[in-house]
Amino acid sequence: MQVGAAMQALAGTSGEPHRLWSATPEELLPEDQRGFAVSGTFYASPTEDAVFIGYDNQLARLDSRDGKQQKVVTATRGVSFANCWQTLTPDGKTIIQADDFKITAMDVETGKKKWSFTSKDKEEMFGRAAPSVGPDGTVYFGTHRSNVYALNGETGKKKWQTGLGVFGARPAPAVGPDGKVYVGFMGEKNPMAVLDAASGAKERTLDHQGHLVTEPWLDADGNLFLKTDGGVTAVNPATGEEKWKVKAASRDDVLGPAPGPDGQLYFSTRAGKLLAVDPKTGAETWRLDTEGRLKSGPQVDRHGVIYVLNDDDQVEAIARNKAARLAATAQTLGAQAAGPAVGAVNGYFVVGGVRVAMANR
Questions:
Q1: For residue range 187-218, what is the model confidence (pLDDT) as tens digits?
Q2: Fewer CB atoms near the end CB (10 Å): N or C, the chain?
Q3: Predicted TM-score (pTM) of this structure
């Protein structure tokens, strides 16, 4: 494909200033394969020009540059790619899924199960929060009995288990660059538990304000982000002190954050706003009104393209500068057609405990 032809094809994907393309998860599959899922889930690959969209037991791989479908795989029986308690590993190769009674690792290229972990306690339920994945591939998750587990990401073998004694809670662990695991209790006002990532030993507690709504998350600088009823707060993980806060207007809600390759943090709001924030100060650096309601937090790929799920259950690809993104995409496509593939762009912001945006949280 020549550069000019690539530009023409991509320019036709959307006439709007920021939208590159959109895809409806249900329509990616033949009608006889469509299940009863209302919304899909999506995962922007941190290592390839690919977006994975899950719908029922199907996982479609799309080219992130133009939204074209490349392949569809079927999950192992009894496993859904539209489960909201899922996490994409930092290498972009595996989806870790929690359900009530097991943790399952699934290969994104084949849909096949890599491993599955179940508790010896047959009544212990896992699927109440998405697992977290550390920089070494260790998988961390909590159970309704307030146990936190660490598993080997390659084999699914248990490394350690720690009981926190908060019965009926939804413990959600997040891994920090300081080698600690910060365990929040979703829906609860309990202090967070801080564990040693290597051993699981509890070291201290961390007080915070409000009820935790989604899983906590830490960035590469060690900022702890907590989503509560009042917005998303950046917290000092050593002291629990609030650094800054992103709060939506009345009757709106903030979702995120998602790290971008430009070092900014991206948020979305239910009312359809996208915004970028300086992670050091919390100052807003960019804003876009998508002119429609959104169901998910954003994800940002290594090129800076933002992905969200809108109120029509479409996954949208949005660029801050569409013209620049189309030109870069056309150049890449043209180079690939003419010769060896162009190497991946470096600098994608990946940290331990990569957080995947979930639909309909």
A1: 878 899 999 999 999 999 999 877 888 899 99
A2: N
A3: 0.85
